[in-house]
Amino acid sequence: MHANCPQLYSEDLLSLAVSTIRNQTSKVIFPVVEGLAGQSALILRQETELTPELNSTFLAHIVNTEAAASARTKSSKKLMLFDNTALASLSQSTCGALPHIANLIARPDMSFSDSLLIQTVYLAVPPVFVREPATRKGRKIDGGAGPTWSVMKSIRTHALACLRGVSII
Asked: How far apart are the first and last CA of the chain?
């Protein structure tokens, strides 16, 4: 292609990618992270009782197993991803896809429709407000290097890059 010609990407494909990442984060990753943040309250409840953050028994089960895995792990051995392989794979693919979307949005030689930009904003805003597990003193668990912290840091960083790219346009 000529350097002055804009590249064409299928808006349907980009829209599907943004909505898929948004669904992964809002329906799986964020509820698990917020469930781990409220783990002490969740342990006191029966496993069959669901919290507003955990709208399925499967997510409640994942939160309980992640909390147990985190409790078994010594502070010298820090987890970088979740213990559950499906959740680890999902969080890894989400953390890998967000930088690509942020880079596409930030490119000055490309223009996107308003609906795609709005979808990107709806993807990028929620990570800022996700409550993460913390100790009694308000510091992150394991000195800030636990699995939820590293995943949420990556998601937050790239989500803010998406917002920065949208604001430039």
From this structure: 23
Three-class HEC string of 13-62: HHHHHHHHHHHHHHHHHHHHHHHHHCHHHHHHCCCCCCCCCCCCHHHHHH
Domain span holding position 85: 11-168
The pLDDT assigned to 41 comes to 47
2 within domain boundaries: no
In a domain, 3, yes or no: no
| Cα–Cα dist 86/103, whole Å | 26
Report CA-CA distances (Å) from 53 to 16, 36, 84: 25, 10, 19
Is the separation of the CB atoms in 141 and 149 below 8 Å? Answer: yes
- Could you read off the pLDDT of 20-54 as tens digits, one per residue? 999 999 888 888 888 777 754 444 344 445 555 55
In angstroms, how far is CA 100 from the centroid of its own chain? 15
- How many structural domains are present in the chain? 1
127 bridge partner residues: none
**Residue 5 belongs to some domain of the structure:** no
Query: Which tens digits make up the pLDDT trace of 107-137?
Result: 888 888 899 999 999 999 999 888 877 654 5
Residue 78, pLDDT above cutoff 70: no
Q: Looking at the domain assignment, is residue 59 inside a domain?
A: yes
pTM over 0.70: yes
